[in-house]
Amino acid sequence: MDMKRTVKKANNDAARRLYAPYAEAEWGFLNHWYPARFAGEVPEGSAVGVQICGVPIVLRRSKGKVYALKDQCLHRGVKLSAKPMCLTEDTITCWYHGFTFSIETGELVSIVAAPDDEIIGTTGIPTYPVEEVNGIVFVFVKSDDWEDEIPPLAQDLPIRFPDNNERFPHPFWPDTPSMLDKDAVALGVHRTGYANWRLACENGFDAGHLLIHKDCTIVQAKDWAVPLGIKPLTDQATQLIEDEDGPKGFINMYFTDNYEPVLVNERLNVKASGSVPKYFRTSMFLPGVLMVENWPEENVVQYEWYVPITDDTYEYWEVLVKRCPTEEDVKGFEYRFKNFYEPMALHGFNDCDLFARDAMQNFYADGAGWADEQLGDMDYSIITWRKVASRYNRGIAKKPRGVSGVVKGASNVLAEIRGPGCGHYRDKKGE
Amino acid sequence: MDMKRTVKKANNDAARRLYAPYAEAEWGFLNHWYPARFAGEVPEGSAVGVQICGVPIVLRRSKGKVYALKDQCLHRGVKLSAKPMCLTEDTITCWYHGFTFSIETGELVSIVAAPDDEIIGTTGIPTYPVEEVNGIVFVFVKSDDWEDEIPPLAQDLPIRFPDNNERFPHPFWPDTPSMLDKDAVALGVHRTGYANWRLACENGFDAGHLLIHKDCTIVQAKDWAVPLGIKPLTDQATQLIEDEDGPKGFINMYFTDNYEPVLVNERLNVKASGSVPKYFRTSMFLPGVLMVENWPEENVVQYEWYVPITDDTYEYWEVLVKRCPTEEDVKGFEYRFKNFYEPMALHGFNDCDLFARDAMQNFYADGAGWADEQLGDMDYSIITWRKVASRYNRGIAKKPRGVSGVVKGASNVLAEIRGPGCGHYRDKKGE
Amino acid sequence: MDMKRTVKKANNDAARRLYAPYAEAEWGFLNHWYPARFAGEVPEGSAVGVQICGVPIVLRRSKGKVYALKDQCLHRGVKLSAKPMCLTEDTITCWYHGFTFSIETGELVSIVAAPDDEIIGTTGIPTYPVEEVNGIVFVFVKSDDWEDEIPPLAQDLPIRFPDNNERFPHPFWPDTPSMLDKDAVALGVHRTGYANWRLACENGFDAGHLLIHKDCTIVQAKDWAVPLGIKPLTDQATQLIEDEDGPKGFINMYFTDNYEPVLVNERLNVKASGSVPKYFRTSMFLPGVLMVENWPEENVVQYEWYVPITDDTYEYWEVLVKRCPTEEDVKGFEYRFKNFYEPMALHGFNDCDLFARDAMQNFYADGAGWADEQLGDMDYSIITWRKVASRYNRGIAKKPRGVSGVVKGASNVLAEIRGPGCGHYRDKKGE
Q1: Does A311 touch chain C if contact means CB atoms closer than 8 Å?
Q2: CA angle in degrees (0–180, nearest 5) for C46-C52-C53
Q3: Residue A384 per-residue DSSP state
């Protein structure tokens, strides 16, 4: 099958119709599992606010377990997390008027200042399922009308090895560890990026963007042989993963006959450099989680999430996972994480990706990019992602109301920036 | 009468229709008296710009008296206050092209550069009535089509004592002083808050928000007995004030049989703390002025204004008034203001209110809060306020045109924040 | 002819219809020559991004010559200039995926990672004609549908002397030099102003705004006799320049019988001050370039451009031109530029103009100013400009799509300003 014709076809009007749901999902996909915070960011007794797909969520840890509730008091709409107040172990209280909710059910169980109010027991706020795995707090960001069973976290994580060894062989590296492995240790960082979450996703597995990484210190230090590009040769290059009860996504079959590295560009007189082969493979799953196998080094895997906050911000998660059967293994991984992986891979290498995603935002923010982009052969996996995401997402988040990031401008912004002083709440005194 | 049923009823559709004018008043109420600046902020010969209800206003003091004019030159629309120019004692001149207006009438009396222009004498800018009382410059923010007499300032200030002693007895504290008392001294501060003015108003007299103050240093230092809440028992708890020629508003009849302090919440296992009784009472008047009697201490009253600037900013005024018959009394009040009231009450205590108001803004900014809020028993006074404000306001400010705060975003904001340098008007030089 | 009646008539409905195209040109006029950067800002091998009339443009200098292309990759829309990559002397490469364009034609000549992609050679990005004159890189900002010949740069520059001596005599100063003179040297600065470009234009030649300059240090130091205003007496005061193949604009015939200086304003009791006569003359040309003859000193001319970036930002160019036949003349001009002209004229004097233009922005930003402004006698030249600009512009820039400055607000602005820290891309680490 001729790839070029595939691509041409892939982004035509018929294809656009196929990924129309994705094009509409400015605020993300609901009814999926997302990482919300590292476990260490939600200490016992705390109440921490996050926003995912436009849904404000407060995380509260009580007796070791993390609970998630809508971070918007039903009374006057303030965030419970704005000034955390926890009067009992089984509740969270709004700091403003004392509306108190069961952290288990979200039910309004009391009001500090009005213990007899008849509203008590008749209403409440939504709660969200939580799973804490290997130091990461995952939340199932549920729409209000979701009535099905909650799918297991594993359905929203990358496929696992060695279970999939036969289907997706990896002759050049050992079995990829998984977040869900018993002795797995996950270490990482997250930070806010300033682009739509979809632009972030599409950067992650993009086979055509190796160019932005060729000058990275880690590439130079390791003398990795980074090709100019990786060219899909057959329609098996990108393989769909759509098992009924498993994660939905696709895998790029690098280092097989389906792909060919591009080593020379004669017209531009450039050649791939580096002499040490660097084997790796990317796959991508709903709701937006990337797996890079054999990365940055052997026996380590890099996961990335691009979690929608608003329509123009996302939380960028980079997590490295390694199996560490002994305490010494754990310490060794932590040491290498701190002194090598974090500065040179998660930052040095991936900061270029952060830059690239934000650089696309102007083109797509007003819709122009979605209409005018001109995709090429190398973008076959992007079209694949858009279609698979359109087919298997469990719900499109609508533009929310009444939460942070909906109203974009504010009267005071320029004044604050430009004024002689920049203080917040500056006083003017009388005589 | 059962309060609970009253509240339920209070925020139903019929009630919402009754306070629809208030719900529309995003930019405030026109044709009312508002504090614009402290007297000391408008020294002789100065021209100071403020914005109230979206109306730009320039205050000019000449021969001791303060005049107020529209702060927008009729020629090219710049603010007269942007670069004050006063060539004669009875005029203010636009610094740009010299359009010169009578400070008394607003008439265009000359143009510096074109003394013979036939436009002179045929046009002008609006002026606004000014009253300077006890160190505060009040402006009557008039709509262009207001043709009635200007109501006295007293109609837009709280009711006075001892005149109202019989009607609203206060057995636990001495007569409340008034801004208008002959020997009254007013001391205070004002600052900008980042929320709609109505959210600020509704925090002021809110009987249910004592919770946010319980940890304040002043409460702890004084060991004040602050209840968990104050529960209305009868429909006399909140009494309307709607005398024909007087201020319009309502009073919360705390420390009467109409209210009951909530001292214990058994479900949450919390009790009111503090051992020293603290008596006070709140009342609220058009266009948005709060009176807290017997506060922060005996013989002192606290006034608060929430003056609309735009639809998402307001000027928060806190003013303490005390009768000081002798110069020594004045000095004593000033000393206590500086060393106790200002740091521990106006800031320590009320900073929590500022935080709370701004915390509501996201919920209400796009209209969601007005539709989705869920009020309870404790909010009876809020519904009362919305209705009385709807009934007695003298005009709803429309969204203005051509003034600061209407166009919310600007092209350069992110660039300025994120750019390598943040200077305004940075040069790029040629060779 | 009575000037007053002329002005009255000039801004009536009929006149507004005549300058309707100007009123629509929020984003500027296309198909004109604009200064983009000083030559020294585009060194050999660099790729520098600018935005003009909403069109992102990348300037690349190769083998001494500057080329201009659309600064938006056709693939995913990023700016080529965001991270310049130039692999060959005749191309520019997108840093993201390696799309490579001929700098001469804009044709897609290769893709680094996909040298065989069939899209190559079939598409490309627009290019723009460039002229580099006397240290300034000019770009002809072409609309996509422009098919006519490219007019010479001289048609978008001020008229020249001595060619126009007879038509526009200047008995009080020597022949004005021109940017296009063989031995001319141009020195200047440019910086971003925060207003619509038309407000900036209208300040440049405005005969009524001398008032803002009367206190400038240069005026005081030189003891220049600056009148209060300059009053047009006849309809020859402002003369149209509309030769078929020449620049289109007008000239203010100061220091002729058509104008009278206003020296006294009796009503306001002010007199012009200064004792040294200061002769000068302003003229203005499409697409928005001002010439101030005999300014700041003899044998020097000041050019100013107000180049639209977005609808609320413009690049303000100030350039002084002098004929310098010898190397010593050049050094002398550079010395005086650095130590006198730049600090006291381009800054000290013209900073007042920058302030004035931005002060108009609020009034005009939402359209209010265009409807409500009240022009007077002194504004005859402004009406003239609007009409001539409407008649002779070569195309109105539409609101663009997919570029910087179109989407005005962003979710994160307030958070960044107000947050406890203001860092960009702050990390949150796991355990």
Answers
A1: yes
A2: 160
A3: H
B-interface mutation test, from C265, C337, C380, most B Cβ less than 10 A away: C265
The reply to whether C409 touches chain B by the CB within 8 Å rule is yes
Model confidence band, residue B427 (pLDDT cutoffs 50, 70, 90): low
Q: Do the chains contact at C76 and A229, CB–CB below 8 Å? A: no
For chain A, list the domains and their CATH numbers: 32-131 (2.20.25.10), 147-392 (3.90.380.10)
A417 touches chain B (CB under 8 A): yes
CB contact under 8 A, A402 and B374: no
Give the residues of chain C that fall short of pLDDT 50. Answer: 1-7, 9, 414-426, 431
Residue B421: pLDDT over 60: no
Q: Are B381 and B250 in contact (CB under 8 A)?
A: yes
* Residues of B in Cβ contact (< 8 Å) with A78: 356, 359-360, 363
Burial B344-355 (b: 16+ CB within 10 A, else e): bbbbbbbebbbb
Which two structure tokens, joined as six digits, stand for A276?
Answer: 């040490």
- Residue C367 C-alpha from the chain's centroid: 22
Contacts of C266 in chain B (CB under 8 A): 115
Q: Please, which contacts does C382-386 make with residues 24 or more away whose CB atoms are closer than 8 Å?
A: C382/C202, C382/C206, C383/C7, C383/C10, C383/C11, C383/C15, C383/C19, C384/C10, C384/C238, C384/C240, C384/C250, C385/C201, C385/C202, C385/C205, C385/C249, C385/C250, C385/C284, C386/C18, C386/C19, C386/C22, C386/C23
B87 has pLDDT over 50: yes
Report, as ranges of residue numbers, the positions in chain A whose pLDDT lies below 50: 1-7, 9, 414-426, 430-431
Per-residue pLDDT reduced to its tens digit, A263-281: 999 999 999 989 999 999 9
Please tell me the total number of residues recorded for chain A in this structure.
Answer: 431
Q: What is the pLDDT of residues A358-410, one digit of tens each?
A: 899 999 999 999 999 998 878 889 999 999 999 999 999 999 999 999 998 88
Average pLDDT over residues B200-214: 90
C188–B414: do the CB atoms touch at under 8 Å?
no
Whether C94 contacts C80, CB under 8 Å: yes
State how far the Cα of A127 lies from the Cα of A363, in Å rounded to an integer. Answer: 36
What are the two backbone dihedrals, phi and then psi, of residue A199, each rounded to the nearest 5 degrees?
A: -65, -35
Interface of B with A in 344-373 (CB under 8 A): 351, 354-356, 359-360, 362-369, 372-373
Instruction: State pLDDT tens for residues B66-85.
Output: 999 999 999 999 999 999 99
Other CB atoms within 10 A of residue C40 CB: 13
- Give pLDDT tens digits for C258-288: 999 999 999 999 999 899 999 999 999 999 9
Q: Chain B contacts of A431, Cβ < 8 Å? A: 38-40, 135, 187
C8-64 pLDDT per residue, tens: 545 778 888 889 999 999 999 999 999 999 999 999 999 999 999 999 999 999 999
Between CA B222 and CA B297 the distance in angstroms is: 11
Structure tokens that stand for C50 in this block? 């600018």
Torsion, Cα of A294, A295, A299, A304 (10° steps): -110
- What is the chain B residue with the closest CA to A95? B212
Peptide bond into A162 cis (omega under 30): yes
* The one-letter amino acid at A67: Y
CA end-to-end span of chain A, whole Å? 83
Sign of CA pseudo-dihedral C321, C324, C327, C330: negative
